[in-house]
Amino acid sequence: MPNNNQYLFLLSFSLTFSFLVLASFRVSAFLTAREIHLRNFILIGLPKDLQHPDMDVHSIQDFIKNFSQEDAIALAQTPAFLASAGLVAVTFYWLLLSGERKPVLNSNEWKEFPLVLKTQTSPNTAIYRFALPSSKDVLGLPVGQHIQISAEINGKDIMRSYTPTTLDQFDKGHFELLIKTYEKGNISRHFSLLKIGDRIRVKGPKGAFIYNNKLTGHLGMIAGGTGITPMYQIIRSSIWDHSDATTINLIYANVNEEDILLRDELEHLHHNSAGRFNIFYVLNNPPPGWKGGVGFVTKEQVAHYMPSQEKDCKILMCGPPPMMTAMKKHLDELKYPAPRTVSKLADQVFLF
Ligand SMILES: Cc1cc2nc3c(=O)[nH]c(=O)nc-3n(C[C@H](O)[C@H](O)[C@H](O)COP(=O)(O)OP(=O)(O)OC[C@H]3O[C@@H](n4cnc5c(N)ncnc54)[C@H](O)[C@@H]3O)c2cc1C
Predict the structure, then answer these.
(1) Quick one: 57 and 141 in the same domain?
(2) What interhelical angle do 228-239 and 263-271 show, nearest 10?
(3) pTM given for the model
(4) Are residues 200 and 228 in the same domain?
(5) Does residue 190 line the site of ligand 1, with CB under 6 A?
(6) Enclosing domain of residue 58
(7) In sequence order, what DSSP letters do the residues of 143-200 get, joined into one string?
(8) CA spacing 20 to 30 A to 55: which of 77, 238, 300, 339?
(9) The predicted structure's pLDDT at residue 234
């Protein structure tokens, strides 16, 4: 179904077209009254004598009256007719059927989006869904990049980074953020106080990491807490892309079992990955019978689950700063290159 903008476009197109047709009749009448005949300009090269056998059409009425089925078939076979028909068909498809819209994000301009749904996933974590201007819009965020959110808190403009869990290729008309609220946090607390209809300010895309299925043969990921969001976006894009052969191994660390975010979604991806994607969970406080890692992520676990640095591989990391410091030390001891202060796409170890 066409949306409101498309109806508006068709209406304005019809009005403009009708206006131009009327205007052309008035201009034509004006010129004819002064003995200026437009056909003398349009039919340059053809005989000016209207009685000439090649010029047996004197008016639109004559033209319609004399227009036979053979004329229609001959006209339909002319390159000009075929090209025009093709152009009209492409324009029609583009306007009404494809429904493709321009990406909404702009990296130089703050845009506002209203909250339309909040789904609490644990006492301090929720998924926030924001509507885009049209149901066919996409956010316009390349896989691996993130957005910035800004809000005025106590008279100061505060800005933080977030990675949507939605993807342009699957999710139209909205985007979602999975956010953990910290009691003393600025933006995460601001989120927790939002009501349906409240708007947030967003700018992007930001970040140096952009994933594509030829980027590397093996991805190793180490995530802690909400650091899972950039990883989830990349895993989801990779696993549903059947031309992608990248293997992905994820170490995901949390405090308690109930803190594991997007667990069902990650398991689902694992089961549909034909062995390409594997997860190793680590918990500080494991429940009885826990089969994953216990305590903090160790050097041995990194060595076991991450691809060897000699392979065509990249290690991606996102999590709380103390955990990231410990992981950098493990990787250094395992002879991986040290990540830069601000990572670049070409780096073997990339810190979000
Ligand atoms: C690329 C990128 C993507 C990110 N994506 C997400 C995402 O999808 N979802 C998400 O929830 N977060 C994400 N983050 C983290 C996010 O940017 C904020 O750092 C986080 O929401 C805290 O911001 P704040 O303003 O609420 O807290 P701040 O004002 O920065 O911190 C104030 C206080 O809050 C508490 N606090 C803040 N962060 C932590 C922490 N990690 N552990 C313990 N206490 C803390 C501390 O008491 C701190 O003193 C991402 C970060 C990056 C760099």
Answers:
(1) no
(2) 30
(3) 0.75
(4) no
(5) no
(6) 4-97
(7) TT-EEEEEEEETTEEEEEEE--S--TTT--SEEEEEEEPPTT-SHHHHHHT--TT-EE
(8) 77
(9) 98
At 70 the pLDDT is 80
**Residues forming the active site:** 146, 162-163, 318
Could you write out the DSSP letters of every residue in 37-68? -THHHHTTTS-S-TTSGGG---SHHHHHHH--
Per-residue pLDDT reduced to its tens digit, 210-257: 999 999 999 999 999 999 999 999 999 999 999 999 999 999 999 999
Residue stretches of the chain with pLDDT short of 70:
1-6, 38-60, 94-101
Q: Is 229 in the pocket of ligand 1 (CB under 6 A)?
A: yes
Number of domains in the chain: 3
Element housing 269 (H / E): helix 263-271
- The amino acid at 181: T
- Check whether residue 93 and residue 115 sit in a common domain: no
343 lines ligand 1 (CB under 6 A): no
> What CATH number is attached to the domain comprising 332?
3.40.50.80
Q: Write down the residue that tokens 């708007």 correspond to.
A: 199
Residue 293 structure tokens? 């890692």
Lookup: tokens for 343:
């990572």
pLDDT value of position 27 = 82
C-alpha distance from residue 235 to each of 44, 70, 277 (Å): 63, 60, 8
Residue 178 labelled as part of a binding site: yes
User: Does residue 252 contact residue 283 with C-beta atoms inside 8 Å?
Assistant: no
Protein residue whose Cα sits closest to atom 33 of ligand 1: 185
Residue listed under structure tokens 């909250």: 115
- pLDDT, position 192: 97
Ligand 1 atom with the shortest distance to the CA of 320: 41
Q: Is 31 in the same domain as 83?
A: yes
Is the shortest distance between the CB of 181 and ligand 1 below 6 Å?
Answer: no
Residue 105 lies in a domain: no
